[in-house]
Amino acid sequence: MATELASQPDLWARAAGLTDLQALLPARGERIAVVGCGTSWFMAQSYAILRERAGHGETDAFAASEAPDARDYDAIVALTRSGTTTEVLQYVERARGRVKTIGVIGDASSPLVPLVDEAVTLPFADEESVVQTRFATTALALFRASLGEDLEQAVADARTAVAEDLPPVLIDADQYSFLGLGWSYGLAQEAALKMREASQSWTEAYPSMEYRHGPLAIAAPGRVTWQFGDAPEGLAGEVAATGAHFEQGRLDPLAELVRAQRVALARAVDRGLDPDRPRNLTRSVILDA
């Protein structure tokens, strides 16, 4: 996980230049759905909001197991590192011949590749670790570049996130609440998942404005509330009044996720856990027929 995590700045820069692959993604104006499982679902949520806000067209994001079959789309994007996840394969199979399907896949030899109309393969970002880091973020970097974003600052921020010292208050906390607004909410959910997977930590994630509607009750000394991107006015002070640490993300939200990945790794090491092989998890969820 450590080596894969640290490789992300270079991979994002590479993805930003892959204009041939970006051209395979849905065109401006198309109504689309993006599906995935786990980490890929959270990246799908971020992409959906970015695409709509950039004026590229209505975009829905679903966990593959919950994606509706009856809704009309111009294209479906299936995001999956392994290309073997049962729910993704089943959904694409049901969509074949009815709607254009595009796979964004880490393993170029996976069974999903021949099922989709267009295969956007990113084998250079694939991983050995069960816990995803670089494939998911590189896919989102590709999506962002396809929407016309300049990723130079995001890449620079990722280099900072990989190299800087982590404050002990982040590593030693006994609970974490990750918050995000708009597209960064999907990243907050992914940060919480990463901490649970790699280090068995108690983590939650909420839209920033929703945090006041109940979850603020969990804030206390020794706990962290971590904001990805700009925070709503007054929230930092409300959290500070509880005695909890408020971590205001100062980097591009995708680079801020890298910081959270590093905290997850550090906590796993401190606890004597293997972050590459978390308990009860496999690289891909493949269900019996």
Number of domains: 2
Question: Over all CA atoms, what is the radius of gyration?
Answer: 18 Å
The CATH topology of the largest domain corresponds to Rossmann fold
The global form is globular
Largest sheet: 5 strands, parallel
Structural class comes to alpha/beta
CATH class of the largest domain: Alpha Beta
Alpha-carbon distance between the two ends: 31 Å
Q: Strand percentage, roughly?
A: 15-25%
Look at the structure and name the CATH superfamily of the largest domain: Glucose-6-phosphate isomerase like protein, domain 1
Question: Counting H and I runs of at least 4 residues, what is the number of helices?
Answer: 11
Mean of residue pLDDT values: 95
Trace the largest sheet across and list its strands.
2-1-3-4-5
Helix content: 25-40%
Describe the secondary-structure layout.
Layout: H1 2-6, H2 8-16, H3 19-22, E1 32-36, H4 39-53, E2 59-63, E3 75-80, H5 86-95, E4 100-105, E5 118-121, H6 134-146, H7 152-163, H8 168-171, E6 175-180, H9 184-199, E7 203-207, E8 223-228, H10 235-241, E9 245-248, H11 253-270
Helix pairs in contact: 2-6, 2-7, 4-6, 4-9, 7-11, 9-11
Would you give an account of this structure?
With 289 residues, the protein is of the alpha/beta class. It contains 11 helices and 9 strands. It has a 5-stranded parallel sheet with strand order 2-1-3-4-5, with helices on both faces. The protein is globular and about 55 Å long. This is SIS domain-containing protein.
